[in-house]
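Reference record
================
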Amino acid sequence: MIDFNVPTFTGREFSYMKEAVDSKKICGDGQFTKKCEKWIEERFNAKKVLLTTSATSALEMACYLSGIKAGDEVILPSFTFSSTANAPVLFGARLVFVDIRPDTMNIDETKIEEAITEKTKAIIAVHYAGVSCEMDTIMDIAKRHGLKVIEDAAQGIMSEYKGRSLGTIGDFGCFSFHETKNYSMGEGGAILINNESDILPAEIMREKGTNRAQYFRGQVDKYSWVDYGSSYLPSDINAAYLWAQLEIADEINEDRLSTWKKYDEALRPLEKEGKLQLPVIPKDLVHNAHMYYVKLSDLSERTAFISYLKENGVQSAFHYVPLHSAPAGKKFGRFFGEDIFTTKESERLTRLPMYYGISDEDVSKVIKTVKEFF
C-alpha cells in the first residue's frame, strides 16, 4: 500500500535531539528553539517568530492579541480545519462563514465586505494547500474597516504572494509543524508577529502570562505574572527534530514540487477530456506543493474513486467537511450569503499521496491507477 503521508525525516533528527538532551535543557526556548525561530525570521523576513506547541495554539495567541472578545464576529471560510474556528470561539467570538472560490478553495475575497457588521473584529485568511488567498483585496478591506487579519498559513510555509512570504502579510501568521506538514516536529507550530507593538504581549502570553523573556534579556530584575497567558512553548527536543528539516528546507521543497509537477503533467490530459479537475495556481503566486488534489464530478464518483485506489494499493483522502454544517459550526456561527461552492467543491475533492522522498516508482503507480479508474 502506498501511504497517503509519511512524516518528513532527514536522518539528522536523532542526533540533534540527543544534543538537546545532553545540553540538560529540554524545556522551551533552548538552543534549537532559538535556531528555528531565527531561521524563519531571516528566511521569510518576519519581524518576530515564536515557536508554539501547535498551529492551533498560534491561532489562539493571534486571536487574543487581536483583541477578540465575547460578542465580536470573525469572518472565515467554512472549508477549513476546526482549529481555525476554535481559536476565536475560545475568546467568545461568533463565527461568520463565507463562501470559497472554486479555483483555489480559498475564501472568496469578493464576499467578505458584505459580511462585515459593526461587530466584526477580524478576518482569518486560510491559505489552502499552500496557495495564497487574494491578500491585496483582503488587506484593503481590513484597512478600510479597521479589522485585524490573521493568516492561517498552517499549510503555507515556503509559499509566496506577489513576492511576500505567507504569514508575513497580515497582522499575524500561523504555521503548522504537525506530522502531516512539509516540515514537522511531530506536534508544533509558530506564530509570526508582524507589528512591533505585538511582540512583547506575545512573549508574555506564550510564557504563561509572565515577563520571563524580559528578565532573561536583562530588561527587568525579576519576572512575575503580568497578564493572561498559557503554556504555548514547545520542548526543545521537538525543536531539535524540526531543525534537522529546516537545515535542508530547499531540498525538501524541491522534492515535493517535483512530485507535484509529475502528477500535474501526467493527469493534465484527463482534465482536458473533462474527467477530473486539477489544482489551480493563480498568477504571481508561489506554492509549496503541500498537497496534490483532484476533483471528481460529485460525491458518488469521489467515493468510488477513493475505493478503487485503495483496492489497488493507493491511499487517498478527502478533506474537510464544511464547518458550517457541523454541530459546533451551527452552535457558534452562521453562514453569510449562499453556499454556492463550499459544500459542492468539498464533496468532489480528494488528495493523492504526497510526501518528501516518495519514490518515482510509487508516483508512477499512483498516476497509472488514477488513469485506470477512468
